[in-house]
Amino acid sequence: MSVIENIRKFIREECPLLQEFGELFPVGMEKLEEDIGSYTVQLVPSEPIVKRYVNGVTIRRVSFCFASREAYENLENIDTSEFYEKFSEWMENCTRSGRLPELGKGKRAKSIKATTHGYLMDVSETKARYQIQCEFQFYQSKGE
């Protein structure tokens, strides 16, 4: 499984903000559906290697945005802003506690964080796309 797929799976299964009445909200990959309450993880261009050690180990990054389709109304907009604030705090808490995505052989998660606030990206009369840009860092062994 790819690193970005592990990130998507981690967010979908571990983020308490995406659970309602015991049900998990679906989180897509690279495509945000038009339905209100849709979520997706999308890759964002970035330099993949943060640091290279002489022993061949690297610290790598995957930049991504987490996006949602929401109703576009005054009260909903406030709730959405609060959701993204809490989502950012959740990622910080995951890094602090070491509760991070599993990556498989030769890779070990280091951190996950928001690099922007949640913001309005696109809007129509009744729906809006909100997103937050994020960064996941991990250690990768030489040759993996």
Describe this structure in words.
This protein has 144 residues and is of the alpha+beta class. It has a single domain (3-140), classed as 2-Layer Sandwich (STM4215-like), CATH 3.30.2000.30. 25% of the residues lie in helices and 40% in strands. It is built from 2 helices and 9 strands. The protein has helices spanning 3-14, 74-97, and strands at 19-20, 23-24, 27-29, 39-43, 49-52, 58-71, 107-114, 119-123, 127-140. Strands 3, 4, 5, 6, 7, 8 and 9 form a 7-stranded mixed β-sheet that branches. A hairpin with a 2-residue loop joins strand 1 (19-20) and strand 2. The protein is elongated, with a radius of gyration of 16 Å. The mean pLDDT is 93.
Can you tag this structure with a few keywords?
elongated, STM4215-like, 144 residues, alpha+beta, single chain
Question: Percent of residues in beta strands?
Answer: 35-45%
CATH class categorisation: Alpha Beta
CATH architecture level-2 label: 2-Layer Sandwich
Biggest β-sheet: count, sense, barrel?
A: 7 strands, mixed
The number of helical elements comes to 2
* Silhouette: elongated
Q: What structural category characterises the helix and strand content?
A: alpha+beta
Quaternary form: single chain
Report how far the terminal alpha carbons are from each other: 14 Å
Low-confidence stretches: none
**Would you report the number of β strands?**
9
Order of H and E elements = HEEEEEEHEEE
Estimate nothing, just give the exact number of structural domains: 1
Rg over C-alpha atoms, rounded to the nearest angstrom? 16 Å
Q: Output mean pLDDT.
A: 93
CATH topology: STM4215-like
| Percentage of residues in helical conformation | 25-40%
